[in-house]
Write a structure and sequence with these properties.
It is elongated, with a radius of gyration of 19 Å. With 148 residues, it is of the alpha+beta class. The longest helix is centred in the first third of the chain and has 14 residues. The mean pLDDT is 91. It is built from six helices and six strands; from the N terminus they run H-H-H-E-E-H-E-E-H-E-E-H.
Length: 148
């Protein structure tokens, strides 16, 4: 039942603007799920849902991967925190000050560069996995454009 409920919550937030736990609960009840606010609260936490701004000081529930990063935020993060980078084959290694790698990797992930199939971030190092290998110069060019 929980799996079906989670699937329905994801469907609801993708197709509707839902801003509160009570709105989630009400939408689920309309779909035949008998839920409490406490259950919905746990579901939201387990699904990792976040609230994103939709304008006019309004917010809605969304999956973290739905969050897109603004061009200015991407530029700021790369310019401010990328100290140096190097690459080998299809891996680009980016160095940041301690404690900043995960934040930079997150904005790169959310920028949804087609060539980057994934990032792995530690404390001060990020690995970007690029596909195909021939796309590495394209990603390097993007990084450089934000460093200028």
């Amino acid at each position: 039942m929980k799996t079906k409920r989670h699937k329905k919550i994801l469907e609801l937030i993708q197709n509707q603007i839902i801003s509160t736990q009570e709105e989630v609960a009400e939408a689920l009840r309309k779909e035949g799920f008998n839920v409490t606010q406490a259950t919905v609260s746990r579901d939201i936490k387990e699904l990792g849902l976040i609230k994103v701004a939709i304008g006019n000081e309004m917010y809605k529930y969304a999956l973290p991967m739905e969050v897109t990063v603004s061009e200015s935020r991407l530029k700021f993060m790369i310019k401010e925190f990328v100290l140096k980078y190097d690459y080998s084959e299809n891996i680009i290694v980016i160095k940041t000050p301690p404690g900043n790698a995960q934040a930079v990797a997150s904005v790169i992930d959310n920028a949804q560069w087609r060539e980057v199939i994934g990032t792995v971030a530690g404390d001060d190092t990020i690995l970007l996995v690029i596909k195909p290998v021939s796309a590495v110069p394209t990603v390097i060019k993007k990084i450089n454009s934000y460093l200028d």
